[in-house]
What does this fold into?
Amino acid sequence: MDNHISAVMRASTPLELSKYYEYITSRVKEEYELASRVRAETGSPVPVVEVSLPSDMAERVEVLVGPRGVASLIRDLLEKCDEDILPFRLAETLLKRYDRINDDALSQVLKVSLAVMTPPCITAAPTEGITGVKIKKNNDGSNYLAVYFAGPIRSAGGTEIAGAVVLADYIRRLAGISKYQPTDQEVRRYIEELRVYRRKVGRFQYNVPDEIVEFVLRRLPIEITGVATDPIPVPAYKDLPRVETPYLRGGALRVLNDGVIGRAKKVLKIVKVSGLDGWEWLEEVAAKLSEAKSTGKNTGLDDVVGGRPVLSTPGRFGGFRIRYGRAPTTSMAALGIHPYTMRLMENFVVAGTQLRIDYPGKGGIAVPVSSIEPPVVIFRDGSVMRIDNEEKLAEAERSEYKILFNGDILISFGDCVENNVKLQPPGYCEEWWIQEALLEESRKGRLSDEDRRWLEKIRRDPYRIIPPVEVACRISHKLGVPIHPRFMPFWDRISGREIERLRRWLASAIPKARKGWGMLILDYDPEAKSILEKMLIEHLVLDHKIALDLHWVKSLNFLFRPFIRVDVSKSSVPELISSLSGTSFRPRMGSTVSARVGRPEKAGQRRMKPPVHVLFPVGMAGGPQRDIITAANTRSVVLELVRRVCLTCGEKTWMNRCKHCGKPTAMMAECPRCGAEYIEPEQEKCPRCGEELKRTWKQLVNLKELYENELMKAYEPPPRVLKGVRALTNKSKQPEELLKGILRANLGLYVYKDGTIRFDAVNAPLTH
Ligand SMILES: [Zn+2]
Ligand SMILES: [Zn+2]
It folds into this structure.
């Protein structure tokens, strides 16, 4: 299995990928078949696995959101239109199918069209974030549309929130409903509610001035409202006739503040796709907001929490350097960090850690990526080391070090598109260099066969194939391209004067230097030393000497020509590089982002409190541990359980199979007033007299016998403890099979209240 997976990780061709998908599908099918067979053989109430495997997006939407038959409609529409217009076409087509347009129909249409707006259509926003819509009355007697948002919308993404509002307006117009006309009191209620929420519950992503909120509310074509999310009443405007709750409507507030207003640009983008008019006023909001933002001071250090370190501040040299791209471990909202950086930060950042950043979005989760620029540290003796292998990492971890450079943060281009931000200029990197070199070589064709072979090799794997320094200098010399980034200093904040200082030191120290361990050992000069440090050039400090790797000596000689007698102290760095070496300057650090540790992520088995192995009641007999084994040792216990009856022999029981004849039993109910008995009744009330039917009864259960039988059936050793529940909370009081609990207890697994075993995983987007 492991071997297979790692083979798959390397798979890059479509053929290999399709094999991978086939493999997953066939294994899933095997597991389903096995589970269904076990269910059939053990007489489980349902002999197959109920959870069906949806085949595509359309089917998933039908299963999760409905209505029935929508899957084939979605597939038809997708053949005729683009994905981004699909939600609107779907709303249109669906609405025509309803004879009567009422709240339920509109609500269903809104939910399903929102679901297809954000593939892969598995978020909770459509199903749990929106409770429904209502047609309500304006004061002039016309109808308007109100959308009710619930708490879960707060965790939805920007597209979903913005999309919900635009879709609602779209549907409103299709249904011929008028615009919402808020009363003055309703506007003031919103402003008051936002204020109370900020003070008592939590922050919003955007700080919006009151006048913008009012401007928006007076123009919004639909009412954004919702259910109470926090038991905090607003001090004023709490008894408005059209606002159902005096408490904070957290979902609605977030949609208004962070969705419509904060993500105004996103809303406008969706409005444009939909072809709706009447939203022009929002352009003004977007402009006003970016104005407010740019005048406001943003240090990236707002609401820093103790224990969650700040790792990089904005624009800081040596912070996380922006690198664009994607690794197999990163995708939307995932940020690649070098694994050695994680280690050097003493694991304050690990795979799955939430990071709060200022670019391109608000945050993401950290995942390790080893092919990006690694960190650089300085030791107590002044030695500077690029931590690019395990030995160096081990050496750093043994000593005291300070991080000079965090290394790269890998940001996917898709995140920049999604967040609608301008690309920040990146620092020079391998994939950039190879493009420049190939382009120049195709124009000039000056390289020798050997150097061309090098280019070809690097082109195939620019992250791992690094040319020797001689080859790198030759290629740059012949083509005039910048030096390969591995031999380029981080010279972004250096001056001509400092370069001149460094040149003079090299010119005087190199002739007197001696070689040792692949390094050149040069006389110590405090100023030159600090310039090397400032450019993150690796060097050792030993016995008051500076040891420089030979490749650095060669590239510094190539770039700065210390033995040419000129004074470059008045030149800018790009000028002097070009005049001395004939190559061009590129920023090496480029742009950095601010980053700090956000909410810590955790992964683990989800348990009930206290934890439970099996949903089987023990009453008071199990003691405080609710241990079924303890309870079984005492005597028979009286438990409130489901009523079942054997259809063959008439035996009344709670078990799925009759103890006497082994046949399956059926659920029954009894009328406490007239005494009538029903087998698997559909109704809640007695058809004869109207009294509520009784479906459970108190039964004497011989736990010892039951437990021992189950144990024998499974050939399992007895678990040390088998935790049940005090009483069943489900309506029919149907317990789980005790055997399941025995198996779980022996495997260290616990059950969740819906009968599933759950594992909360870190939300990391892994691709192949
Ligand atoms: Zn029977
Ligand atoms: Zn009755």
About this structure: The first helix runs from residue 2 to 10.
